[in-house]
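# nightly structure sweep
# worker-07 picked up a monomer target from the shared queue
# config: single-sequence mode, recycle default, output format = structure tokens
# input follows
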Amino acid sequence: MKARLMFLAAALTGCAALANPTTERNGVLADGEGKTLYIFKKDKPGVSNCYDGCAKAWPPFTVANASKADGDFSVVARKDGTQPWAYKGQPLYFYAGDSAPGEASGEGSGGVWFVVKTKAATAAAPAKQSGGYSY
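# output follows
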């Protein structure tokens, strides 16, 4: 009985971890491999507006299993059939110019691309911030 409970607890913990597809790296959201995630200021909640050349430079952070979406994480249906993760309704993207985990060279690009800063980064930052979106 005790072994069953331990197995069930481990299984539930594993499922909960899958509901959040991101991690924190250097005070910003990143995927499980540490690649920085961005939001596009021209998107609307639940709507992705980055296609064609834009999507080549800013590939969507696509979902492997949409049934895992939970809490602050949801899935957006795009016109091209892909389904990216969204954080608080905002679709998430990578930047093709970031070549290694932790890079955030797309931050502030064109005044419309921003990393998603975590609460820990927001609390540690000075009152006046440049760039980034905090949730």
